[in-house]
């Protein structure tokens, strides 16, 4: 996600949480993964949620080049990512 512009990231996030049916509850205001409140953090959570929902199928974590699979757990504090 490092080299992706914020508009592309936001579009992918909107798709994941909308038509992609990822569980994006935890990135809503007041929830455990809302902070940091930025597109990159929210997209990271949503992309992982979608990837897990799709059964970790190859190609389900690309989002037009905006995402990639990692072995590093991005969970932090009370924010536990779905794939953990």
From TrEMBL:
<keyword id="KW-0472">Membrane</keyword>
<dbReference type="GO" id="GO:0005886">
    <property type="term" value="C:plasma membrane"/>
</dbReference>
<keyword id="KW-0325">Glycoprotein</keyword>
<keyword id="KW-0732">Signal</keyword>
<keyword id="KW-0449">Lipoprotein</keyword>
<keyword id="KW-1003">Cell membrane</keyword>
<dbReference type="GO" id="GO:0098552">
    <property type="term" value="C:side of membrane"/>
</dbReference>
<keyword id="KW-0336">GPI-anchor</keyword>
<dbReference type="GO" id="GO:0009506">
    <property type="term" value="C:plasmodesma"/>
</dbReference>
<dbReference type="Pfam" id="PF07983">
    <property type="entry name" value="X8"/>
</dbReference>
<keyword id="KW-1015">Disulfide bond</keyword>
<feature type="domain" description="X8">
    <location>
        <begin position="1"/>
        <end position="81"/>
    </location>
</feature>
<dbReference type="InterPro" id="IPR012946">
    <property type="entry name" value="X8"/>
</dbReference>
<protein>
    <recommendedName>
        <fullName>X8 domain-containing protein</fullName>
    </recommendedName>
</protein>
<dbReference type="InterPro" id="IPR044788">
    <property type="entry name" value="X8_dom_prot"/>
</dbReference>
């Amino acid at each position: 996600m490092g080299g992706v512009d914020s508009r592309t990231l936001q579009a992918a996030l909107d798709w994941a949480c909308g038509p992609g049916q990822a569980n994006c509850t935890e990135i809503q205001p007041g929830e455990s993964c809302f902070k940091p409140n930025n597109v990159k953090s929210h997209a990271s959570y949503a992309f992982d949620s979608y990837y897990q929902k799709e059964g970790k199928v190859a190609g389900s974590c690309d989002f037009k080049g905006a995402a990639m699979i990692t072995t590093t757990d991005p969970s932090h504090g009370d924010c536990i990512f779905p794939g953990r």
